[in-house]
Amino acid sequence: MNDGDELIVPPDVVYVTYIRTTPREVWDALTQSAFTKQFFFGRTVESDWKQGSPWRLVMPDGRTDVAGEVLVSDQPRKLQVTWFVEWLHDAPKEPTIITYDIEPVGELVKLTMTQHTDAKIPRKFLEAGKQGWAAILSSLKSLLETGEALTIKMNPPE
Amino acid sequence: MSEAVNDVFRALADPSRRALLDALFKRNGQTLGELCDGMAMTRQAVTKHLALLEDANLVAVVWRGREKLHYLNPVPIHEISERWISKYERGRLSALSDLKKALESDDE
């Protein structure tokens, strides 16, 4: 966030975890299904992760969970995507933007997940999303540090 | 890891710091000035507590121009509950009661 991209709208959520690993591993974990299905509630990802490309987060049953566009792809330092929850009929039409910043700090890697949107997101979505992100990021940390993700359950949407 | 866990417990052990986290839970992304408004503490005390919360990674900061915005970061608490408490699943109840004792007795 110090590299000149000023935030016009302050973010809604900023989550940070420090992981004993390399930036490359964190990048791979965020962009490859072999990793995401272990720590991201069983979901896989589809994209070539190039700027301007579409990306999708796919549920274990094959339905699309989240879809969007890759806004910034600076491997292995920064990944920014738009985030539309596909199955929420009353979801806001304005995009939510998710940014992952990956920085080495000593022997650790600082992973910052920032969520911001211009839309007024109903609090129920924000709260559910927040609990999900805390689980996802701590499971990712566990996976990269110990080889095992955390057992967290999240029921598929009705 | 254990040092990070100690930092989290130490940070959470203080009622003023818990009050700051509660304030950020109610409204995320506040400046130092905004956080001071709601607190019965000097600006210096709030600054000191925020620094400790930042060190424990319970507060994440974002710069907007010259303004430093403070965000509640619950990820370390989740890490503790998942990795540390559920590791001792069978001792879950006693672990929780130890946690309660540690949080309540360690008010500095």
Describe the structure.
The complex is a heterodimer of chains A (158) and B (108). By secondary structure, chain A is of the alpha+beta class. Chain A is 25% helix and 34% strand. The mean pLDDT of chain A is 85. By secondary structure, chain B is mainly alpha-helical. Chain B is 62% helix and 11% strand. Chain B has six helices and two strands; from the N terminus they run ααααββαα. Chain B has helices at residues 2-12, 15-26, 32-37, 43-55, 75-85, 92-105, and strands spanning 59-64, 67-72. Chain B has a two-stranded antiparallel ribbon. The relative contact order of chain B is 0.17. The chains are: A alpha+beta (158), B mainly alpha (108). The interface between A and B is medium-sized, with 26 and 22 residues.
Describe the structure in brief.
The complex is a heterodimer of chains A (158) and B (108). Chain A has 158 residues and is α+β, with helices and mostly antiparallel strands. Chain A has helices at residues 23-31, 33-39, 123-146; strands at residues 13-19, 44-46, 54-58, 64-74, 78-85, 96-105, 108-117.
Biggest sheet overview of chain B: 2 strands, antiparallel
Instruction: Identify the strand order in the major beta sheet of chain B.
Output: 1-2
The ordered string of helix (H) and strand (E) elements of chain B is: HHHHEEHH
**Number of individual domains of chain B:** 1
CATH architecture heading of chain B:
Orthogonal Bundle
Main beta-sheet annotation of chain A: 7 strands, antiparallel
* Strand content range of chain B: 5-15%
Class by alpha and beta content of chain B: mainly alpha
Measured distance between first and last alpha carbons of chain B: 23 Å
**How many strands in all of chain B?**
2
Annotation, overall tally of beta strands of chain A: 7
What do we call the CATH topology of chain A?
A: Alpha-D-Glucose-1,6-Bisphosphate, Chain A, domain 4
**CATH homologous superfamily title of chain A:** START domain
Largest inter-chain contact set: A-B, 26 and 22 residues
Over all CA atoms, what is the radius of gyration of chain A? Answer: 15 Å
- The CATH topology of chain B is what? Arc Repressor Mutant, subunit A
Q: How far apart, in Å, are the first and last alpha carbons of chain A?
A: 37 Å
CATH architecture of chain A: 2-Layer Sandwich
Unreliable stretches of chain B (pLDDT < 50, length at least 5) are: none
